[in-house]
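Need tokens for this chain, all 393 residues.
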Amino acid sequence: MVGVNASVQTETAHAHHDTHHVGGESTTINHESGVPVIDLSRDDDDETLIQEIAQACQSPGFFQVINHGIPQLLLNSFRDQCKLYFALDEKLKQMWKRQADNARGFFDDELTKQVRDWKECLDVGVPGSRDWLLDDDDPRNACLDGFNRFPFTDILPGYRSVTVKYFSACEALSKRLAGLMARGLGVPCDDPFIMDMAANHSSYLRTNYYPPFEAHTDSDAGPWPLGISPHKDAGFLTVLLQDDDCHLLQVPCHGIHGRWMLVRPIPGALTINTGDMAQVWSNGKYQAPLHRVLTDSVKPRYSAPFFYNPPYHATVEPATSFTENRKYHPVLWAYYRAMRFAGDMTDLGVEIQIEDFEIGQPKPSHHLKSQKAFLHHGFAHLPFDVERCRSIL
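Here are the structure tokens for all 393 residues:
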């Protein structure tokens, strides 16, 4: 039984396939999975592959990839390590808890649009030194997101090595997908922004644990919580390792307001979605999709999104091929990322969205001015601290 706020309807798809034509070719919509399924065994020069990815990034913004190059053995090992981590004693995990001045580590109190999520998480990201062999707290590892807080090797001997190996595999896959997404817009894969992101990305890997939610018998206890409230991902793209046994990820049903559809993972596949920065860079051609996660009354759910993010120093704006009718003001990624973290960590009101950077708004957003102040004060080059930056939040 899946528990969900009764005020929001859910929709699941039937197990059959439709074929949609893309640029004279066809791509398969697997209604058992709910989103397009794309085979990456083809060469990157394959025009059909390029168009399939471009079409999926336009709508629905979610797709699954098979033959993606990450070995099943590594996927299984990483899943096993995640389960071992979340099975640790609560006091141990709290030792590695993230803080207002360090975005990385364990947490169980995240807010999504000012609503607390029903989950536990651990975030680890590329070190500031880009050297995983250095101690986590080495000063050379400082970056906007702070320092990693891996579990001690004497407690979980294999966690760090397996996680770093999986991180590197997701990094390589993301670079390939970003290049294909560029070509789908008619932008060469050696575009300066794409190349800068490949070399200097600020990506991080999150492991999620959604414990079962036991319903209260008290009729006044309130609605079921959501694992994560409806939201869009901030970065360029997300590579998601789903739980094969508990399917709770949902996206809106196309053309049916208020109804949602499960994204059922194909065994061995990875689920991809575009993020806010891809939407800005594509001038709105690619869409960052809304999605949410339900809670289950019986089964736990484990998942791991890898967020492929631009460099902290990057200013994201529509690609150079979009010389006319630009839809977005430039977005300083370090500022956008910091404001998202501040919104996740504290109740600061309305969470930053790319709509704040749309050109032609009757009243320009305060974020246009605030990101300039953020850069002026040098905050983009320091570990983010909610209190230090509160004056511009």
